[in-house]
Description:
Helix content is about 25%, strand content about 25%. By secondary structure, the chain is of the alpha+beta class. It folds into three domains: about 5-65 and about 315-375, no CATH class; about 75-125 and about 240-315, no CATH class; about 130-230, no CATH class. The chain has an eight-stranded mixed sheet. Strands 7-6-9-8 form a four-stranded antiparallel sheet. It has a two-stranded antiparallel sheet with strand order 5-10. The longest helix has 21 residues, at about 25-45. It is flat, with a radius of gyration of 33 Å.
Amino acid sequence: MNNSTLQLKFKQRLNKIASNDxxxxxxxxxxxxxxxxxxxxxxxxxxxxxxxxxxDEASKRRIDDLQILxxxxxxxxxxxxxxxxxxYFQSDNFNLIYxxxxxxxxxxxxxxxxxxxxxLEYVPEIxxxxxxxxxxxxxYWARCPSDNMNNPCSTNPWKHYCNYWVQTNDPxxxxxxxxxxDPSDPLFGAFISTEExxxxxxxxECLEEEGNQIFNNGYGPFLEEDSEDVLIPGTGVPAVEAxxxxxxxxxxxxxxxxxxxxxxxxxxxxxxxxxxPLKDPDFEWGETICTFQDNEVRIWRKDFFIxxxxxxxxxxxxxxxxxxxxxxxxxxxxxxxxxxxFKDDIVELMIDEAISILAxxxxxxxQFQRGDSLSEKNN
Length: 379
């Protein structure tokens, strides 16, 4: 639904199209209340506090409505020993997902996709190194524009001249990429010439002006050859030493990654679960637990290492913006329209909820009750 229709529905529901009953509704109020309604509606559907008590993925409708918000991101972090037997993978980028001031859009946890191994192979660090790049300086010829009086060949608008040069270590590639220009363009022709293609008068003109020049690899005129040491960056990742997970059997050690089933657990019950042989992390059964603490995700391990962890979560819905309207969140004027990403039937429910919020702000009890009941009944 576009923002023009959305604003029209707001004014119609609040009797503001042709009425002076109440104060005018500013566009920033529409933006703020609708974005608030989006968050409120999403949290209610995820938790199941709606008329049908359906949480996320509890029915086909909840799956259809909320799938657009599911997002996957790889977690990065380090392995932290807990005791001689257990440890955990501690994420270091979850705060970037969670904290709105850092651009985070996290709304609710869904699941973790985790790969684990019992033995890590040695992975060397790739350091930065210098590589010598050789390149040449080549003259190239171009067609003269007819409207440039300062051009050396303005007296003959279609004469080719040879007074530009380019540095490259691959003249053939540079030539091919330049030849993709439109031949009808008066400025076309800025490409390196081979000796066979270069007209006789150009050979004389270019070589006489620049001195005793030669052609290099079939391209030219060739001015000079030079080289440069270029720093090739490394991976920046420290070397990974070969290691076997504590408690892993040397005879039965599995070097192949295994997909783990991860259960979300309470921080208060962590030690209880680790002491329980039926619930603690186990590579053979492919099961482990995770906890959330201090803006960190901790994935616990016993006889294995966490090789990769992908977090699947519900993100916040995209906030709308109305072009020319001051954004209430940034106090900056919006330069473009940003429409609601949900399908129209869901937007209608959000409008009803937003109307209820806005009606409460302007002390309109009738519209407040109407919007509140419709937003819930049609879920």
